[in-house]
Here is the input.
Amino acid sequence: QVQLVESGGGLVHPGGSLRLACTAAGFAFSYFTMDWYHQAPGKRRELVASIRSRGDSTYYADSVKDRFTITRDNATNTVYLQMNSLKPEDTAMYYCNAHDYSHDYWGQGTQVTVSS
Here is the structure.
């Protein structure tokens, strides 16, 4: 059974940091591109960061460049999103996604709230 389980969300003050984790099971994690998306209330889901299967290529949305870092550990089937210098506009549900040419899997999400 395919599972993607996100963790690490919470409430943080502006300027603070959080580290999200997504642990995968039930598919060949090391062959999949892993993405983090976020979705704020009333807005569409947007790609935040992406990392290729070997971890040798990453992508970041302009809004998070130089603040967020995506990494992966293929030995533990986990992808991380280190979020620094958080802003109120980063408040959203954060979702983990795994995809290859013919499969597309989603986690249930973890809430990140940035507020003073």
Remarks:
- The radius of gyration is 13 Å.
- The mean pLDDT is 97.
